[in-house]
UniProtKB/TrEMBL annotation:
The keyword Protease does not apply. CDD domains: PLPDE_III_Yggs_like. It comes from the Bacteria. The lineage of its organism: Bacteria, Pseudomonadati, Pseudomonadota, Betaproteobacteria, Burkholderiales. This is Pyridoxal phosphate homeostasis protein. Belongs to the pyridoxal phosphate-binding protein YggS/PROSC family. Pyridoxal 5'-phosphate (PLP)-binding protein, which is involved in PLP homeostasis. Residues 28-234 form the Alanine racemase N-terminal domain. NCBIfam families: YggS family pyridoxal phosphate-dependent enzyme (TIGR00044). Pfam families: Ala_racemase_N. The modification N6-(pyridoxal phosphate)lysine is found at K36. It comes from Acidovorax facilis.
Amino acid sequence: MTTIANNLQQVLGRMAQACKAAGRDPASVSLLAVSKTFGADAVLEAVAAGQRDFGENYIQEGVDKIAAVHAALPGAALQWHCIGPIQSNKTRLVAEHFDWVHTVDRLKIAERLSAQRPDHLPPLQICIQVNIDGGPTKSGVAPAETLELVRAVAKLPRLVVRGLMSIPDHAPEFEAQLAIHASARRLFDEISAVGEPGLGQFDTLSLGMTADLEAAIQAGSTLVRVGTGIFGGRT
């Protein structure tokens, strides 16, 4: 078994244990393998070990990797998630090559993604990025403004709003991690309860990474984004 395959099994084991501790079905939480800075060979190893969903932070690197992996495995049913910041001049690349975007935090970017999504592709699956802990230098819409942005994005063609994503500042203690992830869960539940038109598939809470996936799952995450725990440390 390769190191990546072994790491994947360890991460899936952690997720299963966290689900058990939270009284949740392990099938209710998906694993997104964050492959930024690692080459297509690393992704192919993960695919061989059963992984199908991959997250990329750097858009051009991600597009190149998607092409390389597709050339190597033209029939593989993989899902590619853009989980990094998006500048206006990169929205076309995202719209044309990715399946999911987790980092929409302003309407302008969503409008460009909508306009540039090719008609022959399925709708782009969107998560709204929320600056849940209010960091002054961090991306994300303020919690109080999230519902308004969700409503606006849900009206755009070729996009489907699937949920929320956050990247809070690192907290070393489990209880602190849990508290901040729980606040994202509350916001998610509040928006879900509104019953807004266009939110029939609002089902995704993208929370948690290698260091805090247990707290995220306890809080209700449906998708954890793990890079280091699968591919190792980055240079």
